[in-house]
From TrEMBL:
One GO term (biological process): regulation of translational termination
Upper taxonomic lineage: Bacteria, Pseudomonadati, Chlamydiota, Chlamydiia, Parachlamydiales
GO terms for MF: GTP binding; GTPase activity; translation release factor activity, codon nonspecific; translation release factor activity, codon specific
Matches recorded under SUPFAM superfamilies: EF-G C-terminal domain-like (SSF54980), P-loop containing nucleoside triphosphate hydrolases (SSF52540), Translation proteins (SSF50447)
NCBIfam families: prfC, PRK00741.1, small_GTP
Keywords: Cytoplasm, GTP-binding, Nucleotide-binding, Protein biosynthesis
Sequence ranges assigned to domain Tr-type G in this UniProt record: 13-283
UniProt-recorded name of the protein: Peptide chain release factor 3
Keyword presence, GTP-binding: yes
Organism: Candidatus Protochlamydia amoebophila
Binding-site residues for GTP, renumbered to this chain: 22-29, 90-94, 144-147
Coiled-coil region(s): none
C-alpha cells in the first residue's frame, strides 16, 4: 500500500462517527457532557442549566457552548477518547426536532440509543430507531438513570426487543438499582465494577474497584441475599438472552445493552470503552455512477467524496452566510480543495471549511472519511448533494420522512406573491419544507414539516432573504403516510385527505394517530409508508 493510502487507512480506522437517539429528557445532553469529561475536553462537568427555557432554534450544544465556554459547532463535534477520534453528530430533540434530525442520522456510522430506565422505549426514540433500521445503522443501547427507581432490567431488555423488533444482548448488568445502584457486572468477564462517587453532581469521574464476581469480597460487599439474587439474574439472562455477534450488531440485528447512570458517572467509563471497540469505523457507502449502476465508495480507496446532510439556515444575523454540513465518505479533504458538484455539473472550491473540534473553533485544513465539515453555502448546495474529487457518481438520495405538522402559508402582503413563490420554491428545493398539493387543484398548497422548528425557520428565511412576511394557519392533521397502491380503492377515514407530494406521490394526512392505525387495518391490500427510502 502506498504511504498515502496507509495514512488514509489509519486515519479512517481511528474514527467513530455516531449520533445519539433518544426521547427528550432521557439524558442525551448529560451523556454527551460526560463524553467530554472522560475524554479530557472539559475538566469539571456540571449540570448544564438553563436549557429548558432556551430559544427554539438553539441546539443543546449551542447552550452548552455558551455556558461552558466550549466551542461546539451546530452540527457535530470532534474529540479524542482513548486514541480514537470521535465525531458526535447533533440530533436535536424537543422543539428543535425536524427533518434535519432524521437526515443527520444518515451521516452516522452508528447510534447510541439512550433510554430512561423508568420510562422505557419512548415515542421519539422509536421514530429515530426506524431510521437506523432503514439505513442498517448499528445501535448500542444505554439504559440511563439506574440511580433512580426504574423498571426491572430484564423487562427493559424485553421492551427493547418487542417494541423495536431487535435482539438485545446485555454487556453489563446492574448491581443494585435506584439508591442501591453501586456497580455493574461485566457479563463476559464476570468481573464486578463497583463505583464510588468522587464529587457531588458527577463533576468528576467515578472511581472504579474491580473484583471478580465469584469472590468472597464481592459476597461480602453485596450481602449473601443480594449476591444470590445477582447470580440468579445472571442465570436467567444467560438462558433468555441473545448471544452477541459483532457481525449481527453491524448488520443492525442485535443491540448490546449497557446499564448506567450518566448523572453519577456510574458505568460511563466501561460503556465508552466498549463503544470504542464495538462501533464501526467509516465503511463503504453505496452510490450510483452516471450509467445508473450501483457502485461501492470505499472510504480509503476512493479519493475525496462527501454529501450534504444538513443546511444551516441563516439564523444568526451577525453571520449572514448559510452553512452546508457535509459528511466525508471517502478520502482526504484538504483546505481549498476543488471538487466536482454532481447535480450542478460544475466545480466548486471548498474554501473556509469550519472545524468541529470541541475546545476550539478552527478553520479546518485536513479531514478524513467520517468527519463532518461545514462550508459556507453561497446557494450551491442542497440537501443530498454529492461532491467528489473525481466526479461521476452520486450517493443514494436521502430518505424522506412523513411530515407531522401541516399548515397553509400566505404572504401578509398579496403584492409580495412573486417573491413568496420564489422563496418557497427555494426552500422546498433545499429540503427545508415539504409542499403538498390537493388532487383536485381547487385548494391551496399545504406546507408540511416534521417539526415546528421547520416552520419557524421557513418564516424567518422568507422574511430575511425574500422580504416576505407570512401568515401561518395550522391545519388539524397529526400524522401522515405515503400510500402505496391504488388510491381509488383506498378506504379513507372520513377526516383524512389524500394529497400529492412534489414527486406526484399520494400521501394521506390523518386527523389522529389512531385513524392511521385504523386505515392500515381497513386496507390490507394497500401499504402505508412512514419513511420513503
Ligand atoms: P436530554 O438531553 O435527553 O433532554 O436529557 P438531559 O441530559 O437534559 O437530562 C434530562 C434530565 O435528566 C436532567 O435533569 C438531568 O440532570 C437528568 N439526568 C440525566 N441523566 C441522569 C441520571 O443518570 N440519573 C438521574 N437521576 N438523572 C439524570 P433536569 O432536572 O430536568 O435538568 P437540569 O436542571 O438538572 O439540567
Amino acid at each position: 500500500m502506498a504511504l498515502e493510502q496507509e495514512q488514509l487507512a489509519e486515519a479512517c480506522e481511528k474514527r467513530r462517527t455516531f449520533a445519539i437517539i433518544s426521547h427528550p429528557d432521557a439524558g442525551k445532553t448529560t451523556l454527551t457532557e460526560k463524553l467530554l469529561l472522560y475524554s479530557g475536553m472539559i475538566h469539571t462537568a456540571g449540570m448544564v442549566r438553563g436549557r429548558k427555557g432556551r430559544k427554539a432554534a438553539a441546539s443543546d450544544w449551542m447552550a452548552m457552548e455558551q455556558e461552558r465556554g466550549i466551542s461546539i459547532t451546530a452540527s457535530a463535534m470532534q474529540f479524542t477518547y482513548n486514541n480514537t477520534i470521535i465525531n458526535v453528530l447533533d440530533t436535536p430533540g424537543h422543539e428543535d426536532f425536524s427533518e434535519d434530525t432524521y437526515r443527520t442520522l444518515t451521516a452516522a456510522d452508528c447510534a447510541i440509543m439512550v433510554i430512561d430506565a423508568a420510562k422505557g422505549v419512548e415515542r421519539q426514540t422509536r421514530k429515530l430507531f426506524e431510521v437506523c433500521r432503514l439505513r442498517k445503522i448499528p445501535v448500542l443501547t444505554f439504559i440511563n438513570k439506574m440511580d433512580m427507581p426504574g423498571q426491572d432490567p430484564l423487562d427493559l431488555m424485553n421492551e427493547v426487543e418487542n417494541v423495536l423488533q431487535i435482539h438485545s444482548s446485555a454487556f453489563n448488568w446492574p448491581i443494585g438499582t435506584g439508591k442501591e445502584f453501586c456497580g455493574v457486572l461485566n457479563c463476559a468477564t464476570k468481573e464486578c465494577l463497583f463505583f464510588t462517587k468522587i464529587a457531588a453532581g458527577g463533576a468528576q469521574k467515578a472511581a472504579i474497584t474491580r473484583i471478580p464476581l465469584y469472590n468472597e469480597e464481592t459476597k461480602e460487599r453485596l450481602g449473601k441475599e443480594y449476591f444470590e439474587k445477582l447470580i440468579q439474574e445472571l442465570e436467567l439472562l444467560e438462558m433468555a438472552g441473545n448471544p452477541f455477534s459483532q457481525k449481527e450488531f453491524l448488520a443492525g440485528n442485535v443491540t448490546p445493552i449497557f446499564f448506567a447512570s450518566a448523572l453519577t458517572n456510574f458505568g460511563i467509563e466501561p460503556f465508552f470503552d466498549a463503544f470504542v471497540n464495538l462501533a464501526p469505523a467509516p465503511h463503504t457507502r453505496m452510490a450510483n455512477n452516471d450509467k445508473g449502476e450501483e457502485i461501492e465508495i470505499d472510504p480509503v480507496q476512493t479519493p475525496f467524496s462527501a454529501y450534504v446532510f444538513k443546511l444551516q439556515a441563516n439564523m444568526d444575523k451577525r453571520h449572514r452566510d448559510s452553512m452546508a454540513f457535509l459528511r466525508i465518505c471517502s478520502g482526504r479533504f484538504d483546505r481549498d480543495l476543488v471538487v466536482k458538484h454532481h447535480r450542478l455539473g460544475k466545480e466548486v472550491r471548498l474554501s473556509r471549511p469550519h472545524g468541529m473540534v470541541a475546545g476550539e473553533r478552527t478553520t479546518l485544513d485536513i479531514a478524513y472519511a467520517g468527519d463532518v465539515i461545514g462550508v459556507i453555502n453561497p446557494g450551491v448546495f442542497a440537501i443530498g448533494d454529492t461532491i467528489s474529487l473525481t466526479g461521476g457518481f452520486n450517493f443514494k438520495p436521502l430518505p424522506q420522512f412523513q411530515p407531522e405538522i401541516f399548515a397553509r402559508v400566505q404572504p401578509k402582503d398579496v403584492g409580495k406573491r412573486k417573491s413568496f413563490d420564489k422563496g418557497v420554491l427555494q426552500l422546498t428545493d433545499e429540503g427545508a419544507i415539504q409542499l403538498l398539493r390537493p388532487y383536485d387543484l381547487s385548494g391551496d398548497l399545504i406546507f408540511a414539516a416534521v417539526g415546528q422548528l421547520q416552520f419557524e425557520v421557513m418564516q424567518y428565511r422568507l422574511k430575511d432573504e425574500y422580504s416576505v412576511e407570512t401568515i401561518i394557519n395550522s391545519l388539524p392533521y397529526q400524522c401522515s403516510a405515503w400510500l402505496i397502491g391504488d388510491k381509488e380503492t383506498f378506504k379513507k377515514p372520513t377526516t383524512a385527505v389524500i394529497v400529492q407530494d412534489r414527486f406526484d406521490r399520494p400521501i394521506i394526512l390523518f386527523g389522529e394517530q389512531w385513524e392511521k392505525q385504523y386505515a392500515i387495518k381497513q386496507n390490507p391490500d394497500h401499504q402505508l409508508v412512514d419513511i420513503l427510502s
